[in-house]
Amino acid sequence: MMSEHRLSAQTWVLIISLGTIWGASFLFARIAVLEMPPMTLVFARVAIAAIALNLFLVFRANGYQHSRAMWLNFAGMGILNNIIPFGLIFYGQTEIGAGLAAIINAMTPIWTIIIANFATSDERFSRNKLIGIVLGFTGVAVLIGSSALSGFGASTWGQIAVFGATISYGFAGVFGRRFANVPPMETARGQLTMSTLIILPLVLLIDHPWSLPMPSTWAIASVIALAVVCTAYAYILFFRILATAGAVNVSLVTFLVPPSAIVLGIVVLGEQLQLRQIIGMVIIMAGLIVVDGRLLSSNR
């Protein structure tokens, strides 16, 4: 059997590309959310991405049909994996930068482990997982800092919102197990399509998008990049890596998203991270490394 540890140069290029693209999603979101409400931005992201993926799959003409029950499952996945986390992240990014949001988002695998332990029968805590969980939460505590003890400012609430998004992603990771026998691209298309249909009436009712001022060219370009590149194309890239390198190796993307988001935030937006935020990132990454286990294994 092919080792999970040996990756070709082409696979590394794909992994690094996906990590950079998902890191860039926090940059594009930061630019766009300063000019449009978070819920409207969620709709724009999922709607444009859904159209792109539907067109992509129509041209592939696989003829795959879904039952009504499966579409309900797609709706559930869309709520947990798109509507709730995107909304919380975009709200959070009205107050915090791209790099910090990406660092907090790295807690997603930690929450997936916690939820899977209680919601499934085959994903129990191990010593490494428990150590990783402790390190992850320690890193978040360092990130938010002692300022939270004296009151919750806008930045603190923004960080908490992004942290809440990682919980939703954790539930989505466990909920997604029911799509094991569904072609992955169909799952991506299905959840984005249902997300669009679910959030559309909410956007019309709450944000009244027709009354919003016209966003700048940069904001519009960021929305398109967020939807087409960071969502639709990223799904295609993700499932290509999954098919060729396996689930273990595709998880390496998790380690690449925060650094790429930080670099892009610094270069493009002039963001700066405080020392405690850098320390918090290092602690969270250490937790992910412990959970992953490969760097600690002697059988490399």
Search tags:
300 residues; mainly alpha; 12 helices; disordered N terminus
Overview of the molecule:
Helix 1 (9-33) packs across helix 4. This protein has twelve helices and no strands. It has 300 residues and is mostly helical.
Quick synopsis:
The chain is mainly alpha-helical and about 300 residues long.
SSE topology sketch:
Layout: H1 9-33, H2 38-60, H3 68-92, H4 98-105, H5 108-119, H6 127-144, H7 154-175, H8 184-206, H9 217-245, H10 247-250, H11 253-269, H12 275-292
Rounded to the nearest angstrom, the radius of gyration is: 19 Å
List how many beta strands DSSP finds. 0
Classify the helix fraction into a percent range. over 70%
Which spans of ≥5 residues are poorly predicted at pLDDT below 50?
Answer: 1-5
- State the separation between the terminal residues, measured CA to CA: 15 Å
Average pLDDT taken over every residue: 89
Please state the overall shape, judged from the principal axes of the Cα atoms.
globular
Structural class assignment: mainly alpha
How many distinct domains? 1
Give the strand content. Answer: under 5%
Enumerate how many helices there are, as a single number: 12
